[in-house]
Amino acid sequence: MSEGRYGIYGGQYIGETLMNEIIHLTEQYEAFKKDAAFQAELDDLLKNYAGRPSLLYYAEKMTKDLGGAKIYLKREDLNHTGSHKINNVLGQVLMAKKMGKTRVIAETGAGQHGVATATAAALLGLECEVFMGKEDTRRQALNVYRMELLGAKVHAVTTGTMTLKDAVNAAMMEWSSRVDDTHYVLGSVMGPHPFPMIVRDFQSVIGKEAREQILKREGKLPAAVVACVGGGSNAMGLFYPFIGDESVRLIGCEAAGKGVDTGFHAATIAKGTLGVFHGMKSIFCQDEHGQIAEVYSISAGLDYPGIGPEHAHLHDTGRAQYVPVTDDEAVEAFEYLARTEGIICAIESAHAVAHVKKIAADYGKDDSIIICLSGRGDKDVAAIARYRGVDIHE
Amino acid sequence: MSNISKAFSNGKAFIPFLTAGDPTADKTVEFMMEMERAGADLIELGIPFSDPTAEGEVIQNANVRALKAGITTDGVFEVVRKVREKTQIPIVLLTYLNPVFHYGYDAFFARCRELSVDGIICPDLPYEEKKELSDVAAEYGVDLIPLIAPTSKGRTQMIAREADGYIYLISSMGVTGVRGQITTDIDAMVKSVREVTDIPCAVGFGISTPAQAAEMAAKSDGAIVGSAIVRMIAQYAGEAGPHIYAYVKEMKDALRGIES
Predict the structure, then answer these.
(1) B149 and chain A: CB distance < 8 Å anywhere?
(2) N or C: which end of chain A has fewer CB within 10 A?
(3) Could you tell me the pLDDT band of residue A159, with boundaries at 50, 70 and 90?
């Protein structure tokens, strides 16, 4: 069996052209992990550039309103560039630079990962090209311009469904055509090994901090930690340091779009089946012939037909639970958090907020729940207005 | 002698590729017969996939057309069955792993054996993952054709040593598609392979002209052409048959008389 397995999931199902590169990447990553100078440089960037540690905010009004567990928000939305994506990107781009690469490429859905990659590339002096589905460039026009301001070139991908899946296809193709000077900064805990491991490790700072912060604040572990899941990077980053804490429930919230039974959703665990795609064996939304399905979510960042292999494994073993959350519920939670706590979060993160609204009252007042607020919602304001039928000029 | 080695016993092999079901399954049967009649030595038949990440735009679009027209994996086997009523030309299926996975490995290779499919190429199944298919393919007597890329370097001989059928030498970086120039040192790739095995090597990716095919075949055992043919199918759709015949004949003629 190949490297990088999580139970039956994971692996390296990728073209021969890229094999030497990902083997090299694995070796380099293992070396950087033990390299104190690299780690110190990364820590410095995380602290002094990205603004870590991020706050663990006690959402008192929300807690009172929901009448159950104390709700804490892990404020990844306050990071530089406005989402958790910067954690992984700083690690990977720094690594790319040390590996002698002069150019990075990335896929992006909502644009958060693209913006983070363009930012790190600007800071560290690398060329940057971002692949984004044409449909998403429309949904997230501001982020396209943001990336361009940062000096990146944005390619609108017009194949397939013109969303995140197609952006990943295009980035993989580009990487296989130019690998010598280029690193592919994959944005989620997916793709061929070593990416699910690398992205998880760089994102684990979320869970590590949250665990320390909650212990300090509450003197005990939370009852549950909750995050939205597309590919699953913010969820994996939050979950990973809690996996050994068996009393802590790990809950991932998938995009149920218009409902898991409508055919317009991206609820991979709820509706998907085992398959091999994008370099990994995992669970995918697909038809009975193994053709990857068109998925749908109001949230461009969750609009992906697969899930990272480690999530699939955590689901199999029962260690983590995955629940579907619809567009309606997410939009309602988006508005609720804005009114209740004065926080406009990303529509992706609002999926996690929506689920906690449902379950908070099931817990006692001595319990706590941590929600990963993976990103801020500025990018979504126009789309939410459209959803509500309000015509605004951006 | 397996059916695949027969393909390499008639001078340098010319290997055309087409996507099954583009524009229709019946047309695919007709096009394959034209290829055979024009002198093709082996045909690579693509099973359409929603996300063919090794393919350039031309073949990607063929996949889209074929899936829209409604072909399934069983439909592809039906194409092979009809072709097999008329000819024993070596046939190799090119497919991403997921459609095979969903068909079920045993069922898939059993069907291959029934229809005398000679081999399978899986662009997203590198050496490290080949156990996924190698045992079941061997059990049913179907060759798992490996790919070797310009970036394979230290991996070439490891792959070649365990190769079956033939070796698909990827001439260029990136995805499939017509290229003006091929700059990879094919001689060096073949030499490295030859040190460990006598299995034939065919070069693909980027070849479209008779001169390119002759140049690549002179350095190896054959030339594989996909996008140039699929482009004709895109242009002429159901009327592509005569164009395919003329093209394959011209390409095979260009390979005749090249010394090994």
Answers:
(1) yes
(2) C
(3) confident
Report the residue of chain B nearest A11, measured CA to CA. Answer: B129
Indicate which of A14, A17, A155, A277 best probes the interface with B, i.e. most B CBs within 10 Å of its own CB. A17
Task: Inform me whether the C-beta atom of residue B139 falls under 8 Å from chain A C-beta atoms.
Answer: no
- The reported pLDDT for the residue numbered A180 is 95
> A349 an active-site residue?
no
The answer, as to whether pTM is greater than 0.95, is: yes
Structural domain boundaries of chain B?
3-145+221-254
Contact B102 A17 (CB under 8 A): no
What is the structure's pLDDT at A139? Answer: 79
Residue A163 pLDDT > 90, yes or no? no
B-chain residue closest to A292, CA distance? B50
Q: What is the pLDDT of residues A216-241, one digit of tens each?
A: 999 999 999 999 999 999 999 999 99
Per-residue pLDDT, B260: 65
For residue A209, indicate whether it is catalytic: no
Instruction: Report which of B27, B111, B46, B43 is spatially closest to residue B77, judged by C-alpha positions.
Output: B111
Do the chains contact at B72 and A279, CB–CB below 8 Å?
Answer: no
To the question of domain B3-145+221-254 being in CATH 2.130.10.10, the answer is: no
Q: Considering only alpha carbons, which residue of chain A is nearest residue B99?
A: A290
Instruction: Return the DSSP state at A111.
Output: S
In SS3 terms, chain B reads as CCHHHHHCCCCCEEEEEEECCCCCHHHHHHHHHHHHHCCCCCEEEECCCCCCCCCCHHHHHHHHHHHHCCCCHHHHHHHHHHHHCCCCCCEEEECCHHHHHHHCHHHHHHHHHHCCCCEEECCCCCHHHCHHHHHHHHHCCCEEECEECCCCHHHHHHHHHCCCCCEEEECCCCCCCCCCCCCCCHHHHHHHHHCCCCCCEEEECCCCCHHHHHHHHHHCCEEEECHHHHHHHHHHHHHCHHHHHHHHHHHHHHHCCCCC
The strands making up A127-133's β-sheet, listed across from edge to edge, are A153-157, A127-133, A103-108, A182-184
Report ipTM for this prediction.
0.96
Per-residue pLDDT tens over the stretch B31-68: 999 999 999 999 999 999 999 999 999 999 999 999 99
Active site residue A374: yes
- In a mutagenesis test of the A interface, which of B61, B94, B124, B148 is the best target, namely the one with the most A β-carbons within 10 Å? B124
